[in-house]
Amino acid sequence: MNLRHEFTPGRNGSSDAKCYLVTPTSRRLKKERGDGTMVIPAYGSGAMPSVWQPGDLEELQMLKNRLKGRYCFAAGATLLRTQWEGGLVPAPEHMISLVHIPGASGVHVDGDRIVIGALTRLNSCAKDRLLSQLPLLQEAVNNIAAPSIRNVATIGGNIVSGVGDTLPALLVYNAELHWLTDAGMEIRSLASWLNGGRDGSRNPDDVLISIRIPMNMLSKSDTDFQIPGEREIAFYRKVGRRETFSASLVTIAFHGEMGSDGRWNKVAIAAGGGSGMAMRLPESEQLLRSGEASIMQATALGSTAASEFVTYSDAFATEHYRKQTAGNLLGAGLWGALHR
Fold it and tell me: Could you tell me the CA-to-CA distances from 328 to 20, 134, 243, 281, 296 in Å, in that order?
């Protein structure tokens, strides 16, 4: 049986939320609530959550106010399903599906930003022509789960999980996140939002609408805009518990630009993986900027990154292993890129 909810015109042009349960014979079971809205008691022992499908941001805000925190947001719901089936988190009383929110899917250019709708499927991100100029992001996407999962999962869900494998790539691209909050629309840097997970300042009622990446982060290797004598270095690496279709232990991303003088004009380095929080590595970035770009920096980068990376131990890998792996991936990646 499937739970469906619809919004129908109410008094004075408002929207009244209507919920009904559809059986295989399409028989509708309804219960009258005090406010006249038709709804069924869909939550309880063994029951599935009620699923609401707002058609725009106004209806979404109305639902948030009405349900008062007794809900979770969902799009592809691939991670949510895994968490529920594993008993990691309880199923919510209500689910608010975001799939019909206008403007939250697809990729386009808005001024000096590439905008990625939060509801854009991972497989669409992997194939998008514009995003091919952000190769670290596409490589990260292509290394997430199996193709069948990427057909359903969204980039917004990967971000909002707080531990998604796209996060290191998005961090080095200086991504910004566009949120619907109780105070209206807000734009925050990805780095500041991640820090909010550490200090407890995130609001779980905020809804991610889109991801914005500066156009100056686009790869210059295949364009006419590369300045003679300059060179772009970029790589992404993931280490999991097995070769494919595995949750990550460590993920790293590196993006840098060398000037004609042989020094780094720009460098951005990030690491994450597993259930740990992805982070930029400013000490490692400063190390590279302080000297001439050369393969001699690779060893120092590896040791600095290993020391700086904040991670954790679990049943699959120790904190020391994760730190050393992140450092080794970055050092080897830089050596390989500069050696060519």
Answer: 55, 24, 18, 14, 14
Architecture of domain 107-217: 2-Layer Sandwich (3.30)
Q: How far apart (Å, rounded) are the C-alpha atoms in residues 324 and 242? A: 18
Decide which of 3.30.390.50, 2.40.37.20, 3.40.50.80, 3.20.20.80 is the CATH code for 231-339: 3.30.390.50
CA 91 to chain centre: 21
Six token digits for residue 321: 């292993």
Q: Domain limits of the chain? A: 2-97, 107-217, 231-339
Give the single-character DSSP code of 215: G
N-to-C CA span, the chain: 58
Q: Report the distance separating Cα 11 and Cα 15, nearest Å.
A: 8
Q: Mind listing the pLDDT tens digit of every residue in the chain (340 residues)?
A: 333 454 433 334 444 443 333 322 222 323 333 443 333 334 444 567 788 999 999 999 999 889 987 888 888 787 777 777 777 778 888 989 998 999 899 999 999 999 999 999 999 999 999 999 999 999 999 999 889 889 999 999 999 999 999 999 999 999 999 999 989 999 999 999 999 988 888 998 999 999 999 999 998 765 555 566 789 999 999 998 876 666 899 999 999 999 999 999 999 999 999 999 999 999 999 999 999 999 999 999 999 999 999 999 999 999 999 999 999 999 999 999 998 7
Percent helix / strand / coil, the chain, rounded to 5: 30, 30, 40
CA distance 60 to 210: 16
251/325 Cα distance (integer angstroms): 9
Question: What whole-number distance in Å separates Cα of residue 114 and Cα of residue 132?
Answer: 12
Coil vs helix vs strand at 97? strand
Rounded distance between C-alpha atoms, residue 131 and residue 321, angstroms: 33
Q: CA-to-CA distance for 206 and 315, rounded, in angstroms?
A: 32
Q: How many C-beta neighbours within 10 Å does residue 102 have? A: 9
